[in-house]
Every structure is written in structure tokens, then in C-alpha cells.
Amino acid sequence: MKIGIVLKVLSLVCLIVSLFMLLPLGLALLDGTPDAGAFALSLACGLLVSLLLSLGGMGERGHGGLGIREALGVVALAWAIASAVGALPYWSSGVTPSYTDAFFETMSGFTTTGATVLEDIEAAPRGVLLWRALTHWLGGMGIIVLSLAVLPFLGLGGMELFKTEVPGVTQEKLTPRLQQTALLLWGIYVLLTFVETVLLVFGGMSLFDAFAHSCSTIATGGFSTKNTSIAWFHSAYIEWVITFFMFASGVNFSLYFLLTARNFRAFFGDEELRWYTGIVVGSSLAITAFLLIEKLAVGLEPALRKAAFHVVSVMTTTGFITDDFDLWPEFARFLFLLLMVVGACGGSTGGGCKVVRFLLLGRQLRAETLRLLHPRAIITARLNGRPVPRGIMDSAAAFLMLYVLLVTAGTLIVTAFSHPGLDLLSAFSGTITCLSNVGPGLNTLGAVENFAWLPSGVKWLFSFLMLAGRLELFAVVLLFLPGTWAR
């Protein structure tokens, strides 16, 4: 294994994370708040770690590129180191009482989960709140993808890193050069963030709140600057704007490249996009009907807005709330649990298993059923008019199997703690919400609750599940298999 290459890449990731601390440091200095010292100290520590990693990799020139082993190691370690360094401002400023809480908050930020241990968000300095939003924003498109955009990755085999970090069943370059692809993806990402920020300011938000919520929305993260999340603003306009951009962020970002190329037929003809839209619309209408029947909303527009906001928030794994949906009818709560598992589109900033995987398995189920009726027929599962290779079908099935195993194991471990408040539904939904990078769960980990009361062991387990979910399970699980490192 090329240890020197790995250290170089980790040094670059650590440098990028550390330099982004300059933004909250500047805001803290402007506000004159005590967290300025915490950010200065954290920045210095991050730069020192980056320097040490760089010195450790000086002897490796990187010829020959990265193999799959190096890519797996780099991506998993990069996110772990980014979270370890990114936790320092929370810990050193005293916003979190322990490093465990600080690490949980940072991992939740970078993986765009949105689960929080902060009990009074509005009491935190603006510098800390900006850092929370930036961890979402950096993690949404991916720290490695940003590194590929900034540099041609020191001549290394960045395609292996790209495939390991970008979610979905396939990861393809949109342009001949990988660096151009990374720049294009980040360009779309920045543009969406800018447009939403402008629209939220137009709706009455302060520039700070608008930027922080845009970072969380486009990254499908869910960190808010308010204790009651989006409900604090009491604005139908703001709720619809955020609903739209949450939905847009759950779309495969490569489809936006088709829009820039004016290939509208391919964009609107994408089967995953159509199923994603159909699930959102159908679920929103069903919950709207239940809200009206149960008299939990007055009028069609408020009911539809409330339903659509939470359906999109849960399915894209953003996690913003305007209402305590844990008090809604059982039908709605169970539907939300299913949407957490399904998630958004592959290649988006959303989490979950991704719509495309269920779509592929549905096609495979149909093909197998037809084979029973016509044993001699050659029937191939197709997506967007093209046959799906057997390897991709097997990968989708294996992913869902591994997802079920991790949910089962995670729930068992959490319930084994026998902690007050950790009933079966809370443990089950908490495991799913962390593995799918959603944020809020059900019961004692519901929409208006936080994760501060959990035992430290559960917080570390949930941190691991958040990382596994963000890196599509295999990248993290393979690290623990002896065969991965065998020559």
C-alpha cells in the first residue's frame, strides 16, 4: 500500500477543512465573541496536523496512481480526520461538554445527517453556527470531490477516490477530465446555494440565516440556526422555497449537466427522477389527506405545505422541520420511516438507499417473474432504455442486504445499553436515521428532540453509522475485512 500517497491526500483534506475555519474565525472576531480564540487554536492545530501528514508523505511521488485499497483507506480516513479536526472548535469553545459530543456534532455535519447534541442552538455564537453550516456544505458535495476540483490530485489516480465517495450505483465522469467534472459539480452546487440564499433574503431572512440554511438545504443536512428549525420563521414563502431546494438537491447532480447542455429530453426522461418525483407527490398528497381528516391542519394549502415540506425533508434526508411529525397519525410516521430508507436519487447530496436501487431491484423482480412464465426467453432488466449489467444489479442487491444487516446490528447494540428512553422504536429509528443520514427519528429521538442525552457509546456507534451511510456502506465495512489489506 502506498502510505505516502495516502498521507499526502489526507494532508490536503485536513488543510482544506482547516482553511475553511477562517470564515467563522472572521465572523467571531467581527462579533467580538469568545469563540474567536477557539477557532484560532483549532485552525493552528489543523494546520499542524496537515503539515505533519505532508511531511510523512514526502518520500512518495505518487506514480502509478491509487488502487482500490488506497482509495478505500483515503476516503474513510479523510472523513474521520476531517471530523476529528472539525470537532475542535466545539470542544475548545465549550459549546459541547465533551469531545465525544463535539465529534458527534461534526460527523453529523460532514455526513449531512443533521442529528444534533446542542440543546440550545440559539445560545451558541454565530461563529459556531456558521461552522456547523459549513461542515454540511463541505460534506454535501464531498471533501474529496472538492480536493479533486482544487488540484489535479498531485498526479494521483483520483478516479478511484471519486467512485468511492460519490453516492449511487454508477459514478461516471461528465467531462473527459476528472478535475473538470469535479469543478462542474461544485459549480452547480455553489450556484444553487447562491440562488437559494438570495431568495431566502428576499423572504425576510437575515443574510446570515439565509446563507446558513442554504448550506444546510443544498447539502440536505438540516442544521438550523434556530431551536425550532424552520418553524421559527412562520413564513409560508420560506417553507416553499426550502421545500423546492431540498427537492432539487435530492436530484442526481449529473442531470443538471444535461440541463446546461440543453438535453431536456434526457433530463425529463430519466426514470429515477420520474420515480423520485412520483414518490414525493404521492406521499405528500396521502399525508395531506390524513392531516385534513385528523384536523391537524386548517385549509388545503397549509396542509399541503406541511405535508410536502416534511415528505421532501425526510426523503432527501435533510431533516428540517416545521411541525412535530412524531405526533401525526401512525400512517404518516410509518411512511416517513420508509422514506428514510428509500432516500433521494443516486448522485445527489441526499442519503438513504437511493431510489435507483429500488428501481433496479423492481426491474429485476419483474424480469425474474417473466422468466418463470417464459423459461426460454432472454429477458434483461433495463433502465432508461439501456440494459443494466449484471454486476450493477448484484451490487444493488448486496447494498440493500448490507443495509438491513447494519440496521439490525445497530438496533441490537443500542438496545443492549438498556438506557432509559431507548425503547425499541427509538433505537430502531435512531439507527435508520443515522445510517440514512436523515437527522430526526421517532419517539425519544423524534423531530423536536436532540441526541445529547444518549450514552457516549451510542454516540460513537451512531457516528460510525453516519460515516458508513455517507460513504455507501461498503467503503467503510471493507476496511474491517482482513482480505482488503491482503496482498
Largest sheet report: 2 strands, antiparallel
How many DSSP helices? 23
Strand percentage, roughly?
Answer: under 5%
Radius of gyration: 22 Å
- Count the strands? 2
User: Low-confidence runs (pLDDT<50, min 5 residues)?
Assistant: 153-158
Query: What's the rounded overall pLDDT mean?
Result: 87
Class inferred from helices and paired strands: mainly alpha
Termini distance? 9 Å
The helix fraction, in percent, is: 55-70%
Encode the helix/strand succession as letters.
HHHHHHHHHHHHHHHHHHEEHHHHH
- Strand numbers in spatial order across the main sheet: 1-2
Q: Which term fits the overall shape?
A: globular
Short description:
This protein is mostly helical. The protein is 65% helix and 1% strand.
Topology:
Blueprint: H1 3-20, H2 22-31, H3 35-56, H4 68-86, H5 88-93, H6 99-110, H7 126-141, H8 143-150, H9 158-165, H10 178-202, H11 207-218, H12 236-249, H13 253-260, H14 264-268, H15 271-293, H16 300-315, H17 330-342, H18 355-373, E1 382-383, E2 386-387, H19 390-416, H20 424-435, H21 456-470, H22 474-477, H23 482-485
Antiparallel strand pairs: 1-2
Helix pairs in contact: 1-3, 1-4, 2-3, 2-7, 4-6, 4-9, 6-7, 6-21, 7-11, 8-10, 10-11, 10-12, 12-16, 15-16, 18-19, 19-20, 19-21, 20-21
